[in-house]
# Entry
Amino acid sequence: MQYYTEINSYNDNRRCAVTLGKFDSLHKGHMKLIHNVQKYAKMEKLSSVVFAFDMGKDTLLTNTERKKCLEGQVEYMIECPFTEDIKHMEAETFIEEILVNKLHALYIVVGTDFRFGYGARGDVTMLKKYAHRGNYHLDIEEKETYHGREISSTYIRETLKKGDMALANQLLGYKYCMSGVVEHGKQLGRTLGFPTMNVAPTDRKIMPKSGVYACRIKIDELWYEGIGNVGVKPTVTDEKRLLVEVYAFNYEGDAYGKEVMVEFCSFERPETKFESIDQLKEQVDNDIRFGKGYFNI
# Structure
């Protein structure tokens, strides 16, 4: 997959199948659009494009994570920053200059609520109106639903705030995760018998509810079951710095400085400030039992 961070870098003169949106989580609804792009590209021998607006806000997927998820799915991913030029571009100009002249779109796949252009004037009605003039086909997809509610990034954010990972992962179609580099900590866990890894989320990455989770941890391309705490570790520090601290069962290597991925599988309990290290250790022993029970270890 070729990855661009500005539209002017795209130079493929073939007609394309393209889907556009924020794609800030790649949930089941997003993947429905992408699968249709794949279908049209294969059917008509077109290039396949995901055009993602980067709104610069807190997100369920970082740009790097989104790029990894789409690798092998489409030929091109265009990360379009929400610059002043894009923000103030009239909707009709966006259709003509971007979709028709730059991308050479033959199939445009969007959801029913897709909006674009200055003041969000552009919508599916406008895209339909210009389809004949622009010589493209418009595919408008209905929203995916779960138990009668539309699947959306807003819905997923709500479930993460509650720590409901079963529902969040159901809406996403994959397990919610974060990636980061393992930092050196105080090594308290090692002295207590459960060596942990501290991983700081990026500033833009939304974290699930603070607390303890059954997790899967990817280290050196291998997966390990374990537990993880999302929070500020109030028993041992006053820094108030958000970290994900994980303990990978059966991992005996040195992970400092390595990039790891953490999948959040099931919420156990909220983060708690304990009166003593002994109380903390007793609870972590219970957390480990919870994690091993979840994974049937």
